[in-house]
Task: structure prediction
Amino acid sequence: MNDMNNPRLQHGGTFLGFILGLVVGLALALGVAMYVTKVPTPFSNKNQVRTPDQDAVESEKNKDWNPNGVLQPKAPASAPLDAAVTPAPVPASTPVPAEAARKEVKPAVSADPLGDLAKSKTAGADAAEPFQYFVQVGAYRSQAEADGQKAKMALMGLDAKVSEREQAGRTVYRVRLGPFDDKAAAERLRSRLEGAQIENTIVRIQR
Result:
């Protein structure tokens, strides 16, 4: 009974309890600190410095990312090829009979090849132009006047011809240049004569 009322014993017990409480509190604080340092928090990486390698890896991951990808429909799958469809066979060429192959078409041999060539050229000219053209530079009553006009044409380097014709009961001497197979050549000569102040006209004659 006397020990419980002793003030020294009470003071010692209180001090001991305080020390024990302090030790327990420090131990709990140390445990909490160790737990916090080991468990990552949402805001713990905010101020960390990223390396260039980490940035490159993150950029490679986000290169093909499309924010609207969820809104775009998926591309339809390509239809499989129909294995049953086969290309149409190419028809074989029709063989040529041996008798037909042996036959040769020989060109006709002419006895006069030069004459045939001249005829073919004449026929081609006749088909192209059925007329001949002359440039008449005068019609005179006397042969002397016609010869004078012919000499004048010769001085210009032109070969003229004098022809006679009965007209209204009188003989007329015509001086003409030609013939020309096409009208264009006659027109060119006519323009040259007009430039030299020589009257002329184009005469067309059936071949």
Remarks:
- The two ends are 175 Å apart (CA to CA).
- The mean pLDDT is 75.
- The chain has six helices and four strands.
